[in-house]
Every structure is written in C-alpha cells, then in structure tokens.
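Listing S7. Sequence submitted for prediction.
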Amino acid sequence: MASTLALGGAGGAASAVGAPAASRMPSPEVRTVAPEADVSHHGHVSLWGTGLGVWLVSRNSGPSDLASTTVRLRVSVPLSGRQVLPAQCLQADQQTVLCRTGPLNADGSQERQLALELQLRGRPAEVVVRIDTVWNGGATDRNAKNSDHEVLAPATGDEYVF
C-alpha cells in the first residue's frame, strides 16, 4: 500500500495519508519501574588532634542488586588541603569526600568496607560528620534512616558509632 505524506496547517504536523490508523497514533509512553534497594552505612568516627578517622561498612538488603553506590561524607570543618584517599574516593570540595562502594548484592552478603584518615584544618574541639548515599543507580530506598547519619565527634579520640 502506497502512502503519501501530507503536511498539516499552521503547526506543520506531518501525517501519512493512506497509512494504517495505528501508525498515526502517538506512541505510548514507555514506563519502567525503578529498582528498590535498602542501602545501609554503619561504622564509627573518631577525632584526635587534626585527624578524623571514618570507618564504615556499606551493605544492601535488597530486593534489587546494585552495581555500585556513592557514599558522601561531609565534615563541619574544612579539610586541610588535598587528602590522601583510597582509589575509590575523591575530594569534592573543602568539606566533602565521595566514595564508590562497588557492587552490593541484594541479600546483604556483600559488605563493602571503607577506612579514611582525613586531616582537618586546625585542631577543632569537635566535628559533625554527615554520611549519606548520594547515588545508588536510580534505585528507590524507602528506608533512608539506615544510610543517612549525622555524628558529633568531640576531640577525645573515642569512637562515635553510627
């Protein structure tokens, strides 16, 4: 069957004359459901002198596997210049470090551990550390309470758990 292209009036819309009616209908919107995952970060922070230690374990309790997540660590005082960081981490600004976890299986069996020793500008009496997931591959996490934390760490050298 031959078709002829006809240009419409003011909008210049084109439609095929003689084409089946279905081909002239707008195509339906394709919708996908975002995967769901329950990412958690737990660990502790410790402040001594100009040093801030952050130890954390990331895991996923599913139901979907994740190829990777990015955890954000924000500190209330500036870092002292460029930091020596693990290969999976980068310093985003004077107070923020981003680290990728790598794959996290949905059954929680694959924990990813991270240990950082950050150097702070000056010798603060205390620091607030905020830990959260900034990227998880587009998955929905209905339980952000176990992945978003705020910890006050006085300069005692003690471990403050989150």
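Caption to Listing S7: primary sequence and predicted structure tokens for the chain studied. The CA atoms of residues 21 and 27 lie 12 Å apart. Confidence is low (pLDDT under 50) at residues 1-17.
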